[in-house]
Amino acid sequence: MEQWRKDSRKEAVVTDLEALVPQDHLLRKVEKVMDYEWLYEKLDPYYCHDNGRPGIDPVVLIKMALIQHLFGIASLRQTYRDIIVNLAYRWFLGYGLLEEIPHFSTVSYAFCHRFPEDLTMEIFEHILNKALNNRMVDPRTVFIDGTHIKASANKKKYQKEQVSKAAKVYAEQLREEVNAEREKLGKKPINDDDDHDDEGTSGGG
């Protein structure tokens, strides 16, 4: 049987993620407007810095949830699986090709136990508004969990209303998704006033 081309799947290549992600990729545009100083200031009060255990960068968890909703991925579990194999997603998180991605249960825990729902809404409103105001993102392509920002979003009032609505829908649906996952494990649903329990769930994706 004639072989049309050689199989290059095991070919060793010297490169890096920076060279492999297209310059016009949506996540490059979002990265340009990420306000890290503001984000860390908002997230810092929800972490203990003297417990002797290095934690996962909270901004990475925010970015994982942002990937889910910018690209319409059905669940955090699937988002975790997609990030493992997607070069652009890894680049956006700042993770190398061989680094282990934070498990989706860790993301779930953070958004249900560490980050209040109103903080989640505030963070995503902030990121989306900066991306839109700086024209880094086409309003017709930006959405959070199915809530679209229409082409007329250049009107500031309309944009503000739609982004706020989108962030609220996102926060509510994220909570619903996590609670559905907890029910499968025989755990009670999480409310904002619940006490913290063990972080995450065991097992793979």
UniProtKB/TrEMBL annotation:
Segments of skewed composition (Acidic residues): 192-205
The protein's matches in InterPro entries, at most eight in alphabetical order, are given as: Transposase_InsH_N (IPR008490)
| Chain intervals for the UniProt region annotation (Disordered) | 180-205
Bias (Basic and acidic residues) ranges = 180-191
Specify the signal sequence span.
none
Please indicate which superkingdom the organism of origin belongs to: Bacteria
Q: Where is the Transposase InsH N-terminal domain?
A: 16-109
Annotated PANTHER family: TRANSPOSASE INSH FOR INSERTION SEQUENCE ELEMENT IS5A-RELATED
The protein's name = Transposase
The organism that produces this protein has a lineage beginning with: Bacteria, Bacillati, Bacillota, Clostridia, Eubacteriales
